[in-house]
Amino acid sequence: MENKFKDRDISFETLEKAVNGDYFAMQEVIRLFKPYMARLSIEEGRFNRELYERLVRKVMLITVRIKTDYDEK
Fold first, then answer.
1. Using CB atoms within 10 A of its CB, is residue 16 exposed (0-12), middle (13-18) or buried (19+)?
2. What's the pLDDT tens digit per position in 17-48?
3. For the purposes of burial, counting CB atoms within 10 Å of the CB of 47, is it exposed (0-12), middle (13-18) or buried (19 or more)?
4. What predicted TM-score, i.e. pTM, was given to this entire model?
5. For 35, which DSSP code?
6. Which Pfam families does its entry note (predicted)?
7. Which one, of 13, 12, 20, 9, lies nearest residue 64 by Cα?
8. Where in 1-73 does DSSP place strands (E)?
9. Which positions ≥6 away from 43 have C-beta within 8 Å?
10. How confident is the model at residue 71 (pLDDT cuts 50, 70, 90)?
11. What percent of the chain has pLDDT over 70?
């Protein structure tokens, strides 16, 4: 069975770079959620650009708040 979501995954290294402020890694994170954010941004049959941009900012904020350092036991 072919994985239809294979282009929608992100590596831990990319996520870690995004958390640490890498611009291109953050763009990759945004690309991952872009279809979902675009769908959420449709109100009354019209695309709401302001809502979309707020969602992008929210994804960025959540991404930089991820704690990637952990202790292995």
1. middle
2. 999 999 999 999 999 999 999 999 999 999 99
3. exposed
4. 0.77
5. H
6. HTH_16 (PF12645)
7. 20
8. 42-43, 46-47
9. 51
10. low
11. 81
